[in-house]
Design a protein that fits this description.
One of its GO terms (molecular function) is heme binding. The protein is mainly α. The chain contains 11 helices and 9 strands. It has a single domain, classed as Cytochrome p450 (Orthogonal Bundle). Strands 1-9-6 form a 3-stranded antiparallel sheet. Strands 2-5 form a two-stranded antiparallel ribbon. A two-stranded antiparallel ribbon has the order 3-4.
């Protein structure tokens, strides 16, 4: 994190999405999966392509080109890396998938045997997509919200202890997944509306998270809100986001650090650019610049 900050400080003005949020998220997920440092640049390039494939419009435009090639390269890469972990286990998630050594369960409560080759690859790609995209969206959309509501940014700089509550409020206000689509498994009536089995249901989580019947002043960041964490930004039940824990942890550290650096819009009257995606909401670009003379060491490092 500190290295990215120093690079952006030298540049003066950056696109926060491409120059900070994406490389930070990719680095963290790569470390969790056990990607060696010498492969980080390669991993970042192709991870970005794979994550872009989550956008239906992008996927349709590049179905036979870069996204498909990146997916194939990832499959080959993780097959090779999984083989290395079987021969030489490390302290990473990929080792946990391929080596059944019982480190995470006792002898009487075995969770599962080591995953097969196809399961390893599908799990690695799932961790990649479920980890990187939510982190990038939370960091970029969250920063934009904090810039808009500068009083909360100032409170965070003065008292880093409120970071967990601030992050929950940002998740509530700016959920990455806005409109998940589900199929009704049985006939059901909700608030007087009959939904037949097999019907397609679109749950508008962004609206639910701003329900004025649940949240007073729903459009405002309120770190003192009693229902902090009661939002639906990560879904619920079996569909709960796999990357929720790492997204929360990284966002807390990043926003504490950024609150001390006071980023501002590069051009005050230039709105950020959002991706054209109905289901998954996120920023495509967020121009920011660092304010000279006000930065201080946050004590946070990503090594």
């Amino acid at each position: 994190m500190e290295a990215l900050y120093q690079q952006s400080l030298a540049a003066g003005a950056i696109d926060f999405v491409a120059d900070f949020a994406e490389p930070l998220a990719t680095y963290v997920i790569g470390e969790l999966l056990g990607v060696p440092p010498e492969d980080h640049a390669w991993f970042h390039t192709h991870a970005k392509q794979v994550v872009q494939g989550l956008d239906p419009e992008v996927a349709l435009e590049k179905t036979d080109s870069s996204i498909v090639r990146s997916r194939i390269r990832f499959v080959r890469y993780f097959h090779q890396l999984a083989g290395q972990r079987r021969a030489d286990p490390r302290d990473d998630v990929l080792t946990d998938l391929v080596v059944d050594d019982g480190r995470h369960c006792d002898a009487d409560a075995r969770i599962s045997d080591a995953a097969g080759p196809d399961e390893v690859i599908s799990s690695a790609v799932l961790l990649l997509t479920a980890g990187i995209a939510p982190i990038v969206d939370l960091l970029s959309c969250g920063l934009h919200e904090l810039i808009r509501q500068s009083r909360s940014f100032e409170r965070l700089a003065a008292d880093p202890r409120i970071a967990p509550s601030v992050v929950e409020e940002l998740l509530r206000l700016q959920p990455s997944v806005q409109c998940p689509v589900r199929k009704a498994s049985t006939d059901v009536t909700i608030e007087g509306t009959d939904i037949a089995r097999g019907s397609t249901v679109v749950a508008v989580l962004g609206a639910a998270n701003r329900d004025p019947a649940v949240y007073a002043d729903p459009d405002q960041i309120n770190p003192d809100r009693r229902r902090a964490g009661g939002h639906l930004a990560f879904g619920m039940g079996p569909h709960f986001c796999l990357g929720a824990a790492v997204s929360r942890l990284l966002a807390r550290a990043a926003f504490i650090a950024l609150a001390h650096r006071e980023p501002k819009h590069l051009v005050e009257d230039l709105d950020p650019v959002y991706r054209m995606n109905l289901m998954v909401r996120g920023l495509e670009r967020l121009p920011v610049q660092w304010v000279a003379g006000k930065s201080q060491d946050s004590g946070l490092r990503m090594t």
